[in-house]
Each structure stands twice: as C-alpha cells, then as structure tokens.
Amino acid sequence: MSKILIVEDDTKISRYLELELKHEGYEVMTAFDGKSGLEKAVSNDCDMILLDVMLPLMNGMDVCSEIRKKSEVPIIMLTALGEVADKVRGLELGVDDYMTKPFSTDELLARIKMVFNRRKSGKSDKSDTGSLSYKGLEMNLATRNVYYNGEEIQLTKKEFELLEFLLQNKNVVHTRDELMKKVWKYDYVGETNIVDVYIRYIRQKVELKYNIQIIETVRGVGYLVREE
C-alpha cells in the first residue's frame, strides 16, 4: 500500500483529500504547517507528498528544497498561484507535478497515478551510459555532467533533460506542447512558455557564455538542433 503525506494548512481540504485517498486504498499522513510537514517527510518512509505552497511556519518551496537534499520522493505541489515563475521555481526544486486550486478529485487521482507510473518507468531509463557531443559540447548521460571544451557547465536536472532530448532528436522541429510531453512527461495546457524559460536558461549558460549556437528557434512552431 502506497503511503501519501498531505501537507496542507486548510483542514477542510486536508480532511477531504485524506478521505478520498483512503477510499482509493492509499495510506495517508497529514501535516498542517511546513515545519511539521518537513519533519514527517524526512522521518517517515512515504511514497509521495502532496505539498501546498502557502504554508505557515515554512512555505512549500522551502520545504521542497529541504526534502530534495535528502530524498527523491515524488512531490505534487498544490497551489492557488497561477504564475509561471512559481511553477518554474517548483520544477527547478524537483516538483514532479502541479495542481492548481480548485482542482477535481478525479484529476488529482489521475495525476498521482501518472507520477507513480512515470517514476517506475524512469528507473529503467537510468541504464543509459552513453554520451552526446555537439560543437564542442559533451554530455555524459551516466554521470549527467556537461562540458564545453573541457570546462564543466552546471545544468539543472530539467535543463539537462531538455538539452539531451533536443540533441538526441536533431533536425526535427519540436513544438512547445511536444517538449512538455516528452521532457516534463505531462501536459500543461496554456503553460508551455515554461519551455521558453528553460530554453533561455540553457542559452544563458551555454550559448551566450561560449558564443555558440545550439538550439534554433523556429518562429511560431518551436525549437530544434540541426545536424552539424
């Protein structure tokens, strides 16, 4: 039986989620502020965390950051905030998915199952020990280190995966929707400018710094990397 920790300060929402999850066969723990949520997250062997952003004592972003220092447990962020910047920050910290309040129970349950399935399938993908090379850029897929002419480049997990996907699929224009599905593994209807944000991060860290072009923008369509 999978164990899910709900960190939500609204007691009505927390109780409702607890009942629904128990009805679906999950074991449930609850916490009503960020500090106690973090304590339960690191001291209990939970299988997933539903984490609200706006929490007393310690906000959800800081809780997520601390959890990620110790654990890769799946996290779904529950938020009333709709700003792309908040979602980007959560994704940078290692959030697996987002649910914006108000949300339907059916959608949340579907997202929970999807994250569990994605994590299971992702474990089998870790065996890739190859590397990718392009215009002096080297990506080690086993260690996830990136170098340009021998100098190491610090990319976040999602930046690495986005660049890896584009390099592995050269000469094909990938739409923002497709990149969200292939790299993030789920749909964000109306939120595909998150892709633009991450492309900009990569360009700042690689293209602008070393004066090379790797990712090409196809106006009105998406992005691609062309064969050398």
What does this structure look like?
By secondary structure, the protein is α/β, with parallel strands linked by helices. The protein contains eight helices and twelve strands. The chain has helices at 11-23, 34-43, 60-68, 84-93, 105-123, 157-168, 176-184, 193-210; strands at residues 3-7, 27-31, 48-52, 75-79, 97-100, 131-134, 137-140, 146-148, 151-153, 174-175, 216-218, 222-224. The strands form three sheets. It has a five-stranded parallel beta sheet, sandwiched between helices. A hairpin with a 2-residue loop joins strand 6 (131-134) and strand 7 (137-140). The radius of gyration is 19 Å and the shape is elongated. The model has no long low-confidence stretch (mean pLDDT 87).
Order of helices and strands: EHEHEHEHEHEEEEHEHHEE
Classify the helix fraction into a percent range: 40-55%
| Average predicted confidence as pLDDT | 87
Q: What is the strand arrangement across the widest sheet?
A: 2-1-3-4-5
- The number of E-state strands comes to 12
Task: Output the structural class.
Answer: alpha/beta
Low-confidence stretches: none
Number of helices: 8
* Span between termini: 50 Å
> What composes the largest sheet?
5 strands, parallel
Could you tell me the strand content as a percent range? Answer: 15-25%
Task: Write down the Rg.
Answer: 19 Å
Shape assignment: elongated
